Amino acid sequence: TSVYGSAWAETHEGAIIDDFTNQNQNESFIVNGGDSTAVDIDGKVVEILTINPNNGNITINSNISGLDLNNSSVTLKAIGNNIIESKRDGIVSIGNSTVSLSAVSNLISVKDSKGSQVNGIHAEDNSNIIINSESEGIYINVETVGTMAHGINVGDVNDGGRVELKTKNDDITINIKTGSPNAKNGNVYGIQADKIGTVILNSGKNVIITTESQIVEQASGGNNVSALEADNDSFVDIDAGGFIEITSADVNATVYGLRANEGDSFIDVDSKGKNENDYGLVVNTEGKLSHAVYAQNGKVDVNAKNGGIYINSDGTETTDAIY
């Protein structure tokens, strides 16, 4: 059921679990999932649109996940902004599912205080997620006191999955911050495409990806912090009308900036602009073992058309700018 809180907004209290269509003529539409996933559907279709030019935001709130789809479809088309705020996953899409978000800007924010494994976007199987910002940016922010986190996670469990982010005039920003002091046994990724997964970022302005974590490396190793990674025949393509900045840091762990790993995986990075220091591409890593650009049975192709390329790696042990 829908509850009309005022003339300016419509709020749906509780989870959406069935087919649901709403074209809201008030200023905004809010789904408040509370302690349930806000939109939790299997074999269903959900469409939410706002048409009031004064604001028209769509906001999805949950103490668990924002959107969780299995063989389903979700469309959020806001004349204002799409905002997804949760504590475990922003969007989870599996099976033959499609997710379409279109708005002035799109924000996905995940903030966890329990140490859970968290994802901004998680796609598997034949899922297809497209997020389009018409005039402002796309922002994915993931924070947890734990040690397992992805900004974008594709193909981690099952083969496949596709995520595409597009902005016309503003930045695509992905920021990951994890780990309380002495946190152990973690893997942190700004973007990870695995098992024939695909991630495409097409920004009219800049692309900025940052991972910052505190993970204690175990004696057996195995803790990875990677800003952008393609594994097992996967593909990541980044195109920016402005500059691209990639930063990955954890002084206790193995750290990668760009990593193409196994099965002919391919990372393709192209920028057309430059930052204030005249660089079109900047890759910075800082770690115990630090690798800024890394390809093993894979390929990394970088191209800065109108600026320089700056690649820097700082480490206390094995350190490579390019490997």
What does this structure look like?
With 323 residues, the protein is mainly β. It contains no helices and 28 strands. It has a 28-stranded mixed β-sheet that branches. A hairpin with a 4-residue loop joins strand 1 (3-4) and strand 2 (9-13). The chain is globular, with a radius of gyration of 19 Å.
Which terms summarize this structure?
323 residues, mainly beta, 28-stranded mixed beta sheet
- Secondary-structure element series: EEEEEEEEEEEEEEEEEEEEEEEEEEEE
Helix content: under 10%
Q: What distance separates the N and C termini?
A: 56 Å
Kindly name the structural category. mainly beta
Could you tell me the number of beta strands? 28
Mean pLDDT: 92
Largest sheet: 28 strands, mixed
Q: Regions with pLDDT < 50 over 5+ consecutive residues?
A: 1-7
Shape: globular
Radius of gyration: 19 Å
How many helix segments? 0
Our estimate of the beta-strand percent is: over 45%
